[in-house]
Design a protein that fits this description.
This protein is mainly α. The protein contains three helices and no strands.
């Protein structure tokens, strides 16, 4: 059986890579991908803690499934917004969003 620490290391790396990408990127699609990394790291933690702390129950797995559903809905809405911004401005750069105010 794989140790819990290995899953937590992968989850921590994913989380901090997502945080770095969210802060450092200027492209809205890259920011969305970074946000997805953060949410997937949280979902891994739900599943791992459920598996190792409460192996007979399924609450962590249900939280993970709901998290995946919410993430999919959030991604669909965000991509629709990004497509709309690209049609109006011609770029998905976050710095150029101020053009929409004009």
């Amino acid at each position: 059986m794989i140790k819990m620490e290995y899953y937590l290391i992968v989850s921590t790396l994913m989380f901090f890579i997502g945080v770095y990408g969210f802060i450092a990127r200027k492209n809205m699609l890259a920011i969305l991908i970074s946000l997805e990394l953060i949410l997937n790291a949280v979902e891994i933690n739900f599943a791992v803690f459920n598996r190792y702390l409460f192996p007979g129950s399924m609450e962590g797995m249900f939280f993970t499934l709901f998290g995946i559903a919410i993430t999919a809905a959030e991604t669909a809405i965000a991509i629709a917004i990004i497509i709309n911004v690209y049609r109006n401005i011609g770029s998905v750069n976050v710095r150029k969003i101020n053009k929409m105010k004009e």
